[in-house]
UniProtKB/TrEMBL annotation:
Entry protein name: ABC transporter
Keyword Phosphoprotein: no
InterPro entries: AAA+_ATPase (IPR003593), ABC_transporter-like_ATP-bd (IPR003439), P-loop_NTPase (IPR027417)
Source organism (scientific name): Paenibacillus helianthi
Keywords carried by this UniProt record: ATP-binding, Nucleotide-binding
Length: 243
């Protein structure tokens, strides 16, 4: 792959996320096959691809939850791992919040475990995402819990936010609310977002960069403005690559 295809970040701009030839096999099956890319600081990047492409596996490696067989993953210039957990906030694909707590109890707990917790932001997101505080987490619907998980993720001040399927089980209006919560987070341009999603239509206007993954490989890295100038949308490019 040429450097141009990788859409490298110009040398004088800060890099938030970098992978160099990351490989992962699980039970002799190749899950990630030579993944290399860079994401500039302040970007909102869509990680797109069909089921089983390896998106969640890649995010887990970036979060330091899985070790790759070879290659390197760096967050703000330092190797992924427990040391980097303080600078990233991740919404995993199969998260479980403690069902025996109410939302209010959970938020008090979260404030204790995350040193970068922003209580004002949590208050603001409770309203923005219509999450009520008295309810037991185990009594929430899938979509309600998804909103609470997003709230938890965005209430930290971490400079890198990674969301794995933030819309699973979430209704249309809540999807729009989630998208606008992400947009308001972007207002200062300081945070970097990496979002794995199948909901391209809701997120299409948010992304400034795309990483298209299929069968454990990078199938394309796109600058969304350049894509639009060539008359394509995120959706049409996705279809071109994967249909
Ligand atoms: N622990 C595991 N054991 C065996 N196979 C695994 C394991 N974890 C992931 N895989 C396989 O790795 C491949 C990539 O899975 P992954 O969840 O990363 O894909 P994905 O792109 O996030 O998919 P989706 O869009 O469906 O969430 C799949 O074929 C999956 O079955």
């Amino acid at each position: 792959m040429t450097d141009n295809n990788r859409l490298s970040v110009p040398y004088n701009e800060p890099v938030a996320v970098e992978c160099q030839d990351v490989r992962l096999t699980v039970k002799k099956k190749m899950i990630l096959d030579g993944i290399s890319f860079q994401i500039p600081t302040g970007s909102i990047t869509g990680l797109l691809g069909p089921n089983g492409a390896g998106k969640s596996s890649l995010l887990r490696i970036l979060a330091g939850l899985t070790l790759p067989d070879s290659g390197s993953a760096q967050i703000f210039g330092k190797p992924s791992g427990v040391d980097r957990l303080g600078v990233l906030s991740m919404l995993p694909d199969r998260a479980n919040l403690p069902g025996w707590l109410t939302v209010e109890q959970w938020l008090g707990f979260a404030q204790g475990i995350y040193p970068d917790w922003d209580a004002d932001k949590a208050e603001q997101l409770l309203l923005q995402l219509s999450v009520s505080t008295e309810v037991l987490i185990s009594a929430m619907s899938r979509g309600e819990e998804a909103r609470l998980q997003l709230l938890t993720c965005l209430s930290r001040k971490a400079p890198l936010i990674m969301l794995d399927e933030p819309f699973t089980g979430v209704d249309l209006i809540s999807r729009e609310r989630i998208a606008s919560a992400v947009v308001s987070e972007l207002a200062d341009g300081a945070r970097t977002f990496l979002i794995a999603t199948h909901d391209i239509r809701e997120m299409e206007l948010l992304f400034d960069r795309l990483i298209l993954m299929g069968e454990g490989k990078i199938q394309g890295i796109e600058d969304v403005d350049t894509l639009r100038r060539s008359g394509k949308s995120v959706e049409s490019r996705y279809r071109e690559v994967f249909a």
